[in-house]
Structures are given as structure tokens and as C-alpha cells.
Amino acid sequence: MDTARADDPLEVADRSARVIAERSGIAHHDIALVLGSGWGGAAAELGKAVSEIPAEEIPGFSAPAVAGHGGRITSIAVAGTERHALVLGARTHFYEDRGVRAVAHAVRTAAACGASTVVLTNGCGGLRPEWAPGTPVLISDHINLTGASPLEGATFVDLTDLYSTRLRALAREVDPSLDEGVYVQFRGPHYETPAEVQMARRMGGDLVGMSTALEAIAARHAGLEILGLSLVTNPAAGISPTPLSHEEVLEAGRDAAPRLATLLAAITRRILED
Ligand code: 8IG
């Protein structure tokens, strides 16, 4: 066996894509969605699930580390279209210490499955007091404070318009009330201190989270057009007087679920018909 090839992250993603194509019977997926905290049920209105595979049965994926984070890879025949969506309910966070290859694997697999677009969703803290828990926000740009990159070696990738202006406009056609904000990724897994939240705000941030920036970089490198959607599940530390809890995060997700499912289905259909 050629170990150099087996070790190449793009080769692993190709192997994952072949397993997904074989087991789902869908040779080509048109769009991929990565579902983060609070978005678990958000694919419900997309269409009919034609295949559901536990993530750990696909090369490069592992069982979910956090309660409330999905763990299945689903192929959906998008209602009213001839297209297929790949829904990735399995995300590896940088804070899990499985390395940046594990973080990037889902979006690399999406590209290898044929997708030209990826919708990255997350649950995050909000820096604007007017964003109540349960508010979805379009990501306009990011600040990566992890100190890491998902790319290896001298891989110079342009990140101008990383969160596609075109896709954001389509999303706002679907829901003109959607606000936009700059997503600041911290390493986690702890939440920020109030002082760190103020730092993020002065830097130009509107949202704080632990996932999407690194995935977006890897997705751009893989050639995907990116739409980023955050669900504000909690005011960031110090923005509201009450302390943060994972329970609050899960509850905001549950309450927002019906609206998110409708929104995500409508945006996905709009992207596919463009
Ligand atoms: I859900 O307040 C969720 N994820 N960094 N800060 C960070 N990540 C989060 C938060 C938050 N809420």
C-alpha cells in the first residue's frame, strides 16, 4: 500500500466520498450542509432522506464528542428539485484535539462528493444585545483567534469574500430580516471571559464561537462556495448579567428549531435553483 497517499487528507476525503456514494446510492451531491449546535433538526424540511449513515462508519469521521451534536451523514433528495443535499451532522471541533485534519475532513468530503456549495451552521454567542437567543445571523466574515490553520505547508489561499456575497444575497431574498455579523472563532472549549468578549467586539466581532472559521478556510481551499449561518444561542459572556450554560444553548436550539428548519430548506432550494 502506498502510505504517502493513504496519509494525504484529500485522499482520505476521496475515500470517504466513495463510501458515501456506494452506501447512499447517490453518486453526486450538489450541496452540503454542516449542522452545528441548535441546527440538529434543521434539515427536516429539506426533503426525503434517502440514506443515513453513522459518521463513524465512514473513513475520517469519528463518533460525536458532545451531547447535542448529531453524528449522522444523511443524503436528502431536495423536494421540488432533482438535486441531492449531503447533511453532515458530524463536526469535529478544534478543541477536541484530534488535529486540524479531523476539523477539515467534513468539508473536504463534501467537496469530494461533488458539492459546489457548503452551508456551515453553528450555535454561538452573540455580542449584540438586540440578538435574543434563537436569532439566526448570516456570517459576513470571520476573525480566526485559534492560532491555527486547517491547511498544511505553504498553502496560500485568498480569503476575500470567504462568506460569499452572492449566497448571502440569496439568503436575504428568502428572509430579508436576516442580520449579518463577523464571527470570531476562539479555541474553546471554555467560553470567553467578559474581557475577551469586549476584545472581540473592539476587533469588529459580532459573534463568538468555536467551529466555523477553520472549516470555512478548508472549504475555500477545497473550492467550495460558502454560506455561514449562526444561531445566537446565548448572549456572549458579560453581554447579559446571567452566566452561560450548555443547557441554555440546547434550549435555545430546541425553541428555534421550527423556524430554522423552514429557513434552511428555503435557502437551500433558493441556492439550488440559482
Ligand atoms: I452554542 O458564547 C455557543 N458556542 N466561543 N462562545 C463561544 N462559543 C459558543 C458560545 C459562546 N455559545
Explain how this protein is built.
With 274 residues, the protein is an alpha/beta fold. It is 33% helix and 24% strand. The protein has helices spanning 3-6, 9-24, 100-112, 165-174, 194-203, 212-221, 246-273; strands spanning 31-34, 47-54, 72-78, 84-88, 117-126, 135-144, 179-185, 207-209, 225-235. The chain has a five-stranded mixed barrel, surrounded by five helices. Helix 2 crosses helix 3 (100-112) and helix 4 packs across helix 7. The chain binds 8-iodo-guanine. The site of 8-iodo-guanine (8IG) has 16 residues, from strand 5, strand 8 and strand 9. 8-iodo-guanine (8IG) is lined by residues 37, 123-125, 186, 188, 191-192, 208-210, 233-234, 236, 244, 249.
